Amino acid sequence: MEMINLTIDQKPVVVRKGTTVLKAASSIGIDIPTLCYMKLDDMNIENKPGGCRVCVVEVKGRRNLAPACCTEATEGMEISTHTIRVVNARRTVVELILSDHPADCLICAKSGNCELQDMAHHLGIRQIHYQGEQSMYREDTSPAIIREINKCIMCRRCETMCNDVQTVGVLSAVNRGFQAVVAPAFEMNLDHSVCTYCGQCVAVCPTGALTEVDETGAVIRALSDPTKTVIVQTAPAVRAALGEEFGMPAGTLVTGKMVAALRRLGFDHVFDTDFAADLTIMEEGTELLTRLSAYMAGDQNVKLPILTSCCPAWVKFFEHQFPEMKDIPSTARSPQQMFGSIAKTYFADKIGVKRENLVVVSIMPCLAKKYESSRPEFSVNGNPDVDFALTTRELAHLINLGNIDFKSLPNEEFDQPLGESTGAAVIFGTTGGVIEAAVRTAYEIFTGKPLPRIDFEELRGMDGLRKATIDFNGTPINIGIAHGLGNARKLLEDIQAGNSEFHAIEIMSCPGGCIGGGGQPYHHGDAEILKKRQRAIYSEDKNKTLRKSHENPYITKLYDEFLGAPMSEKAHHLLHTKYFDRS
Amino acid sequence: MPKIKLSEKTIGLIKDVCADFGNQGSELINVLHQVQGKLGYLPAEVQEVIAKELNISVAKVYGVVTFYSFFTMIPMGEFPISICMGTACYVRGSEQVLAEFKRQLSIEVGQSTADNKFSLNCLRCVGACGLAPVVMVGEKVYGRVSPQMVKNIIAEYKEGCATESKSA
């Protein structure tokens, strides 16, 4: 390995050949400011168009300033990162960006989380010396994502996520010069495109150009309506990230405080999507075993591998891109929708409230969940099973609005009967979790024996594509896991080509699974945050007494009282769905 | 945007062009160039076929089409008129020539006449600066054009002399 010697701000540094000046500087604690640049370590995600020029540095002997993010360190280089020339150039660049940026920071959805705002503050910009034309692009609202392109600074991070990571290919830079914007093909609106609403563009957008549709107002109205009973469900990944919004370190589990906060906000019943995750395992696990048994009995028509169907962005992805494979994924609805369906039938009956007067709110780490809840097949006579899907960030806003001091809240428990869950349900929040939960239950049902060990380390981790073979008492079951739609595409192409040896595959659209969802607190390019959330999820699982979905007593009760058995006719009607060709 | 239906023949033609370039995404500009040469323009439906053949996103194709002023999504007229706006032509009055074409045809740059006979565009230098200002109609080059000559040039194409001028 060839090593390179250089100096940065007079400090000598030795780096491997191929290292950028930016990375070399950070290795000795010099933090060169960046704006368009983004890197998620260990996840193979990097955006470095060298476009914004905020990271420029002076290189001795070179006439022009060089962008540190895409300039390779060379032998003997002498770099200065904050000469007057550099600082002035940086300020000019940011002032020019600000000169064509709406000055509505006070009311912008991204205020306080905006990297452009931070940069202006960092550089101490108090005046904009340039006046010019203002971009006037129409606003585009979809069921989940709002595009306010006038706030776009052309960092191209969303393009990197949409094209390189997710391979969805909706967003691209179009037009030229001052007219250039990031837009779908033919500048159509997002809801006419093949956008999956995974929200990874929103997760990385440095400004308020891409944000979620805010439904907090509608939820407050429902909460203050005396004729409505308002219940809430919380997805597993929310509890591992919500604390970050209140200054707690990444990876802090706030399950109990979250429940307490929701109760103080006025929700009549605080339930858990994890309950429905256990239910999902009962249905999806049974479906897997049914298909497996048929396959082993020699049925050639059986569709294997079975693919998980919890992730709505993934569902929309294959409906657009692989419609010919729409009968392969499990027909089980996602936990969010199973919860809504059970809440508005079983639970509504139990408390004697009419469907129309029961409002189901879900708290999700996800933007696609907003879209999913609006799909017409998940409503009865126009009344949706899930009325509003809020993100983790929106919940934090609600808690702030409610004058609730989150950190000092006591830990409280979920309500019953839809609040009980097992460790298997909690791990739905991270990549690999759904399939591990399914294996825990499927193994015991298939073999009729208790699991020798509950933790399947071989299914865990952060690699984009993982595989493992689980011994079902002599029968090897091949499991595949993909997170990030680009990785999912690889597995699907293998299935298409007939090269897949998997029996079951878990797919999550977002890098890291739901912990890295588009609705989570912004990670600002720090992949370490995702790993800490993942560890929190596994520790919550470990601390549960019950860790297998089929051991959830309230699930057993639900089948006894209401559904009959997994995959029964009633279960099919309420808990399963079908997919559409959207190509 | 009104949908147009491409004929099997047109789709075949686009596929052939893509295949000529090995269906490589990196050949996008060459493919667009060739296809526009054959079809006259690049409507959305054509871009969709190209994207599929080259296995790249339609957004990317549209991005390239809208980046280069050479590519057009609006059908060119039967006789595309291009006025050179290169430096030599410009200083010798091509702007007045352009204004006269606009006035005579009642269209703006990038538009076609209602009967689809003429379309108007600007280009940069055809390498005949000695003839400035230069106007091209189809493949035919007119040199030392003055605003007074515009009416006659248009008239050449108005009365059924299509075959003659096309071969010119």
Describe the structure.
The complex is a heterodimer of chains A (583) and B (168). With 583 residues, chain A is α/β, with parallel strands linked by helices. Chain A has 18 helices and 22 strands. Among the domains of chain A are: 120 residues, Ubiquitin-like (UB roll), CATH 3.10.20; 133 residues, Rossmann fold (3-Layer(aba) Sandwich). Chain A is 34% helix and 15% strand. In chain A, helix 8 packs across helix 10 and helix 8 crosses helix 14. The longest helix of chain A has 24 residues. The mean pLDDT of chain A is 95. Chain B is built from 8 helices and 4 strands; from the N terminus they run ααααβααβββαα.
- Termini separation of chain A comes to 48 Å
Radius of gyration of chain B: 17 Å
Number of strands of chain B: 4
Helix share, percent of chain B? 40-55%
CATH topology of the largest domain in chain B: Glutaredoxin
